[in-house]
Amino acid sequence: MSPVCFDTIIRGARVVTPAGVARCEIGISGGRIAALGLSLGEATEIIEAEGLIAMPGGIDSHVHISQPSGPGIEMADDFGSATRAAVAGGNTTVLPFCLPEDGQSLRVAVAEYHAKAAGNCHCDVSFHLIVKATDPVTLGQDLPALIAAGHTSFKVFMTYQGLALSDREILEVMSVAKEQGALVMVHAENEDAIEFLRDKAEREGQTDPLFHARTRPVPVEREATHRAITLAEIADVPLTIVHVSNGESLEEIRRSRARGAKVFAETCPQYITLTAADLDRAGFEGAKYVCSPPPRAASDWEAIWSGICNGDFELFSSDHCPFRFADPAGKDAPGARTSFRNIPNGIPGVETRLPILFSEGVSKGRISLERFAAITATNHARLYGLKTKGAIMVGMDADIVLWDPEMTREIRQDDLHHGSDYTPWEGFTVTGWPVRTILRGETVMHEGDVSGVPTGAHIARSAPEVLL
Ligand code: DUC
Ligand code: ZN
Ligand code: ZN
């Protein structure tokens, strides 16, 4: 019998599979994982990976790219720069949100996002929808058509003027999700409470970046988390609470699960590494850390870690929402220095999500390699209907990232690939670094060099696994 000939064999790595960690070779053919075994034979390309760990390529299911951000404000990343940063950070798929401009239909917005992404992506992409209008065309025509075309998840907001939906509207959206087979994601913060606190802070002259955090305290998020889950129970749908920042909101999620609610939870690096004190840095530096929900207290890190370690969080995403700092189209927007209200809301993080969790989680012994793979890739694929992604298994897309678990580096803006001019993690030391990213069998990043050719594709998604 002639030896099997693969396109590529990865040899010598410890391989993280859903069945555990194995020392084996990975045979790749036609962009898919064709075999896992001890001695696979011949291949056109052999990747020697002795001392490295082979993980499923990261899936970051919460990023914002080229999103409309208000008059005169521009996101720091387009699809080229965001996905270049994504693969440099060990990701092979990202799920950005599609936000319609005011008055624009969701269908037209999705078509525009496809046009912006086409031919420019270094990793695969698929869009969540943001539902900000609940008119009959959006709910009765656009959403069903877009879900049928593979956009099987959407986010609703409980905060921000122009975006926040009422409870009734959220129920209407949830009922479309139930009928059409999609998963609802919720940004849970109480808009009225925030506006009350913001007006009061401004009246009292408390306008520095820190007051972004002070006017969005934990109860604002905890109450909305409870309400979102209650609405989902009334509508009888599962839901994802995104960017959970604190222990009290997580407690609401735990209590709801104990009574049978189907709730999934996501957290992000900022909630285990940053605090509200970062928004109080000298000068205008605090603006670099303005995001919502805001970073909390160090005591909340422990609560979030308990949820990461014990499985309460299915998802660890970046919430990459990048603005430039020294830029009037970014954090230094007109009025931003006179009130926190005018500071664009969001921080960059798609490139640093995985190294931060690997270092703080795996290298420090808090979580296993298997749990890392689950919350950075496998669960994202299952929850959001990416059938061929998220696991090193025969038949899956050969989306693989090779980690050097011993490499220690300082995160530095100068080394990053994103379009922002700063990172909130400047000088943060990590142990464990992604050294090669492989997308559908092809190396797209090696030792920090990202391939010049953007080979990423749009992926139409199936129904989320929880709905099947
Ligand atoms: N919510 C997000 O998910 N990202 C950035 C800003 C926000 O409010
Ligand atoms: Zn949000
Ligand atoms: Zn977000």
What does this structure look like?
This protein starts with a strand and ends in an 18-residue tail after the last strand. It has a domain of 316 residues: Metal-dependent hydrolases (TIM Barrel), CATH 3.20.20.140. Strand 8, helix 1 and strand 9 form a beta-alpha-beta unit. The protein contains 12 helices and 20 strands. It is α/β, with parallel strands linked by helices. Helix 3 packs parallel to helix 4, helix 4 crosses helix 7 and helix 7 runs parallel beside helix 8. The radius of gyration is 21 Å and the shape is globular. The mean pLDDT is 97. Strands 8, 9, 10, 11, 12, 13, 14, 15 and 16 form a 9-stranded parallel sheet that branches. The chain has a 7-stranded mixed sheet with strand order 3-2-7-17-18-19-20. A 4-stranded mixed sheet has the order 5-4-1-6, with no helix packed on it. Dihydropyrimidine-2,4(1H,3H)-dione binds next to loops.
Q: Are there runs of 5+ residues with pLDDT below 50, and where? A: none
Which small compounds were modeled alongside the protein?
Answer: dihydropyrimidine-2,4(1H,3H)-dione, zinc ion
Which of globular, elongated, flat, extended, rod-shaped describes the shape?
Answer: globular
Proper CATH architecture of the domain at 56-371: Alpha-Beta Barrel
* Share in helix: 25-40%
Number of strands: 20
CATH topology of the domain at 56-371: TIM Barrel
What is the CA-atom radius of gyration, in angstroms? 21 Å
CATH homologous superfamily placement of the domain at 56-371: Metal-dependent hydrolases
Query: Number of helical segments?
Result: 12
Modified residues (N6-carboxylysine): 155
Protein name: Dihydropyrimidinase
GO molecular function: hydrolase activity, acting on carbon-nitrogen (but not peptide) bonds, in cyclic amides; metal ion binding
Pfam families: Amidohydro_1
